[in-house]
Amino acid sequence: MARRQARFTAQDLVDDPRLRDHSPELWRADLGEVQRRLLSSAVRCFAANGFHATTTRDIADGVGLSPAALYVHFPSKELVLFEIIRVGHERVLAHVRDPSILALEGSADRLRAIVAAYTVWHARHHVTARVCQMELNALTAEHYGEIVELRHRTNGYFRDAVARGVADGTFAQVDVKRVTRAMLSLSIDLVRWYRLDGADSPEQLGEFYADLALRLVGRPKE
Amino acid sequence: MARRQARFTAQDLVDDPRLRDHSPELWRADLGEVQRRLLSSAVRCFAANGFHATTTRDIADGVGLSPAALYVHFPSKELVLFEIIRVGHERVLAHVRDPSILALEGSADRLRAIVAAYTVWHARHHVTARVCQMELNALTAEHYGEIVELRHRTNGYFRDAVARGVADGTFAQVDVKRVTRAMLSLSIDLVRWYRLDGADSPEQLGEFYADLALRLVGRPKE
Amino acid sequence: MARRQARFTAQDLVDDPRLRDHSPELWRADLGEVQRRLLSSAVRCFAANGFHATTTRDIADGVGLSPAALYVHFPSKELVLFEIIRVGHERVLAHVRDPSILALEGSADRLRAIVAAYTVWHARHHVTARVCQMELNALTAEHYGEIVELRHRTNGYFRDAVARGVADGTFAQVDVKRVTRAMLSLSIDLVRWYRLDGADSPEQLGEFYADLALRLVGRPKE
Amino acid sequence: MARRQARFTAQDLVDDPRLRDHSPELWRADLGEVQRRLLSSAVRCFAANGFHATTTRDIADGVGLSPAALYVHFPSKELVLFEIIRVGHERVLAHVRDPSILALEGSADRLRAIVAAYTVWHARHHVTARVCQMELNALTAEHYGEIVELRHRTNGYFRDAVARGVADGTFAQVDVKRVTRAMLSLSIDLVRWYRLDGADSPEQLGEFYADLALRLVGRPKE
DNA sequence: GATGAATGAGCATTCATTCAT
DNA sequence: GATGAATGAATGCTCATTCAT
């Protein structure tokens, strides 16, 4: 088995000091310190090498514990993944249905806001987002189904924002479903290449993708 | 281990009769029948479950052979993956540098053509393309490097097509790098959701994404 | 591992309310309440699933404590087993050498009494007796040796009772060793099948096996 | 964990050269040499230490293979146990319903024959018989159920033999069920203590227990 | 070319036991 | 006395790979 060979790009993620500090606000508030540290370690491992190439030892090593310690806090490796992906999707959903976004009257403003919010979250938490987008099929069928449900709801807010602008004439008569999918593709695909130390801050990328979104609906900035 | 549970979406890929017939033109001409059948089986397995969750038995079962037979034709499981990904990337590169595309004089026509070619290939061969895009980090560092090289060359043709139109005034003064990346994101991300029996044929999607590309460079269809 | 699947017969033992109340008189008088409750829980677990398939958590759960609490009261799981088996064997020994039995003049009466006493104990405490008979080889070599010693002494009373009747002509000229072993087999084997809610009370079974014992020595009831 | 400490009595079984040669006739004829050797090794291990205290390594070591080799021939450790116990019970059943036994006219002769056959099998194959009698509750519920079925059928032949003699007046008016159970107890319990190098050959013990059986039904040898 | 058998290296998970609180 | 957290040492089982046939 040539399973554990290091690949530069992804392996860097695991050791990147900028990623080492977990974002406590990312996890459920009722989790303890150790659980949050384990989740953060798991996120880095899964993002770098994928769920199946990550061992429980890898995860535990990331917080200086033995593999057995993982099982004091989580019932299985798969449930660690599920917790990460579920919370990630819940956070994204919370962002796109933010009341302040839904309160925006102009269709263009609203679409800009939702695209920016979705993009900013994926960029700022690009390591977690990578796991959320790329490790879905390591979930059990049941857990996978729960995530699909959350994605449907999130995508619905996007589709509504596009459909609204098309309906009120703000946007061109674009194919709502296809254009929405394209917008989502842009922000989802950034988990492949985004780096926090790159040219764009999450907010800058959010603005840029909001611009692109308006171009996709035929309403570029004047 | 909950490793082998089937998830509807991806697991379907393995058994989908439309995917069962390998496209012989996809593989290197010098490979024998069995080798091509093994590669096709591996593509379906890797696309459905990922490289690490696929066993050599899974691959061999797909062609009615024993796991040991794999080693008569390939030196390792990783080299099966590499062969798939390398050939996939070579095919894509060949498409985007097609002389008939480079011969197009108009910047808009050329960009349309390259986006359509790239998109059509990913859609028509979406199962292989999924492996090419999502299993990269199962490669050894060396093989990964070779693929990155191919991607750089492919991406270069995209960037040139955008830069050319910006330079000659056909397109708006967009950020070439960012916009190019966005175009690539659209076509790459389709491997997550595209189905041949869906609403769009590869060619239709190619046209649609060519349209979107022109919008992204501020030159929508009049 | 299919280790924890419940099997009806044995698993029932753990939850049988008739077994839930420990018999305080079974354990050493100097033990505290918690210790006795732990021993009773352990007896039910060991009887139901065997020593090696019983976890310290199983035992502790039976008295509503954490696994760590077990170690406040006993130095190891094996010593819990040893305590159970040792006390069980001491109790049996005490019964068969009861002065009132040894005071019986008639050889037939004495054999009847000893067989009945041995049988009654095994039947009344059949859960504990099951552990005493079936979990011996989970003991350390040293502890095993101590138990073998107790068994030899107990068996000696049986052998003497038989030998006495053979010598004084009360019984036929049977092979003392083999016949004694057969009598013991009968009462030992009841731990496999006896239930307090079955057809026979411990005393009824004791009488029945006393009858059988006399038949085995060729002196059936006239 | 003091799990692997050797206990003299039982541990001896594993290494006893007399037990090392498997009895090929004991296993299913369609099994290969390696499978039979693995079963024989497993029998010795399970008899000596019990199913749960036996590791797959122990079993494999007994035939000079690696633990993984076990899984080339059997799907799980539990199925090794089941195969042993099932075949053991089938062999016993075959012995007690031997046509030559059922052909015996006299009730005493028939009971003698069935008791002797049952006893001889348990004595000659006392190591396997020990596993058959003492490791039942390591089986899955389903497998356990299959064995219970076989035991019921075997026990039925015993009960019929007793009932017949009671009905035709050959035996005393004994309690058929209780007396039958006692006869079975005698032969089952011998797995605890029988040794092939002891005082009795299997056949001698069979004769002795046949004698005892007749005494238990009130019809001792004249 | 094909494979049944075999295995070294692992892997997720378990568990008896320890210990700071 | 009680326990939550932690862990060393397994443990059953898997799998990529090898090789004699």
TrEMBL record, chains A, B, C, D:
<dbReference type="GO" id="GO:0000976">
    <property type="term" value="F:transcription cis-regulatory region binding"/>
</dbReference>
<dbReference type="InterPro" id="IPR050109">
    <property type="entry name" value="HTH-type_TetR-like_transc_reg"/>
</dbReference>
<dbReference type="InterPro" id="IPR036271">
    <property type="entry name" value="Tet_transcr_reg_TetR-rel_C_sf"/>
</dbReference>
<dbReference type="GO" id="GO:0003700">
    <property type="term" value="F:DNA-binding transcription factor activity"/>
</dbReference>
<protein>
    <submittedName>
        <fullName>TetR/AcrR family transcriptional regulator</fullName>
    </submittedName>
</protein>
<dbReference type="InterPro" id="IPR009057">
    <property type="entry name" value="Homeodomain-like_sf"/>
</dbReference>
<dbReference type="InterPro" id="IPR023772">
    <property type="entry name" value="DNA-bd_HTH_TetR-type_CS"/>
</dbReference>
<dbReference type="Pfam" id="PF00440">
    <property type="entry name" value="TetR_N"/>
</dbReference>
<feature type="domain" description="HTH tetR-type">
    <location>
        <begin position="32"/>
        <end position="92"/>
    </location>
</feature>
<dbReference type="Pfam" id="PF17932">
    <property type="entry name" value="TetR_C_24"/>
</dbReference>
<feature type="DNA-binding region" description="H-T-H motif">
    <location>
        <begin position="55"/>
        <end position="74"/>
    </location>
</feature>
<dbReference type="InterPro" id="IPR041490">
    <property type="entry name" value="KstR2_TetR_C"/>
</dbReference>
<dbReference type="InterPro" id="IPR001647">
    <property type="entry name" value="HTH_TetR"/>
</dbReference>
<keyword id="KW-0238">DNA-binding</keyword>
